[in-house]
Amino acid sequence: YDPSSPIAAPPGCSNHGLGYAVDLGGGVQAFGTPQYEWLKQNAETYGWTHPDFAEPDGRVPEPWHWESVLARADS
Protein backbone atom coordinates (compact mmCIF):
# COMPACT_ATOMS: atom_id res chain seq x y z
CA TYR A 1 0.00 0.00 0.00
CA ASP A 2 1.31 3.43 -0.99
CA PRO A 3 -0.42 6.17 1.03
CA SER A 4 0.77 8.80 -1.47
CA SER A 5 -1.20 7.11 -4.28
CA PRO A 6 -4.31 9.09 -5.23
CA ILE A 7 -6.22 5.93 -6.18
CA ALA A 8 -5.11 3.30 -3.64
CA ALA A 9 -7.61 2.66 -0.86
CA PRO A 10 -6.34 2.53 2.72
CA PRO A 11 -6.07 -0.98 4.19
CA GLY A 12 -9.48 -2.34 5.11
CA CYS A 13 -11.34 0.12 2.86
CA SER A 14 -10.89 -1.40 -0.60
CA ASN A 15 -14.01 -2.59 -2.35
CA HIS A 16 -11.82 -5.48 -3.58
CA GLY A 17 -10.97 -6.53 -0.04
CA LEU A 18 -14.59 -6.18 1.00
CA GLY A 19 -15.62 -8.57 -1.80
CA TYR A 20 -17.48 -5.99 -3.89
CA ALA A 21 -15.04 -5.64 -6.80
CA VAL A 22 -12.82 -7.74 -9.04
CA ASP A 23 -10.13 -6.95 -11.59
CA LEU A 24 -10.47 -9.18 -14.65
CA GLY A 25 -8.14 -10.31 -17.42
CA GLY A 26 -8.79 -12.63 -20.34
CA GLY A 27 -9.33 -9.80 -22.82
CA VAL A 28 -11.56 -7.72 -20.54
CA GLN A 29 -8.55 -5.67 -19.43
CA ALA A 30 -8.66 -3.50 -22.58
CA PHE A 31 -11.45 -1.21 -23.76
CA GLY A 32 -13.00 -2.17 -27.09
CA THR A 33 -12.09 -5.88 -27.13
CA PRO A 34 -14.84 -8.40 -27.90
CA GLN A 35 -14.55 -9.69 -24.32
CA TYR A 36 -14.92 -6.21 -22.81
CA GLU A 37 -17.86 -5.38 -25.07
CA TRP A 38 -19.59 -8.67 -24.20
CA LEU A 39 -19.17 -8.03 -20.49
CA LYS A 40 -20.33 -4.44 -20.85
CA GLN A 41 -23.54 -5.70 -22.50
CA ASN A 42 -24.14 -8.66 -20.16
CA ALA A 43 -22.57 -7.87 -16.78
CA GLU A 44 -25.75 -6.74 -15.03
CA THR A 45 -27.47 -10.02 -15.97
CA TYR A 46 -24.85 -11.73 -13.81
CA GLY A 47 -24.80 -9.17 -10.99
CA TRP A 48 -21.86 -6.99 -12.10
CA THR A 49 -21.44 -3.42 -13.28
CA HIS A 50 -18.66 -1.21 -14.63
CA PRO A 51 -18.59 1.93 -12.47
CA ASP A 52 -18.58 5.39 -14.05
CA PHE A 53 -15.11 6.25 -12.71
CA ALA A 54 -13.67 3.24 -14.59
CA GLU A 55 -15.21 4.14 -17.97
CA PRO A 56 -12.89 5.39 -20.76
CA ASP A 57 -13.75 9.01 -19.91
CA GLY A 58 -13.87 8.42 -16.15
CA ARG A 59 -11.43 9.79 -13.60
CA VAL A 60 -9.58 6.44 -13.41
CA PRO A 61 -10.14 4.51 -16.68
CA GLU A 62 -9.92 0.82 -15.74
CA PRO A 63 -11.56 -1.59 -18.17
CA TRP A 64 -10.58 -4.51 -15.92
CA HIS A 65 -12.40 -3.17 -12.80
CA TRP A 66 -15.94 -4.51 -12.22
CA GLU A 67 -18.15 -4.23 -9.18
CA SER A 68 -20.95 -6.33 -7.76
CA VAL A 69 -24.34 -4.67 -8.04
CA LEU A 70 -24.48 -5.24 -4.27
CA ALA A 71 -21.79 -2.56 -3.96
CA ARG A 72 -24.21 0.00 -5.40
CA ALA A 73 -27.02 -1.23 -3.17
CA ASP A 74 -24.83 -0.71 -0.10
CA SER A 75 -23.53 2.74 -1.12
UniProtKB/TrEMBL annotation:
One of its GO terms (molecular function) is carboxypeptidase activity. Keywords: Carboxypeptidase, Hydrolase, Protease. Pfam families: VanY (PF02557). InterPro entries: VanY-like_core_dom, Zn_M74/Hedgehog-like. GO terms for biological process: proteolysis. Signal peptide: none annotated. Residues 7-67 form the D-alanyl-D-alanine carboxypeptidase-like core domain. It comes from the Bacteria. This is D-alanyl-D-alanine carboxypeptidase. It comes from Cellulosimicrobium composti.
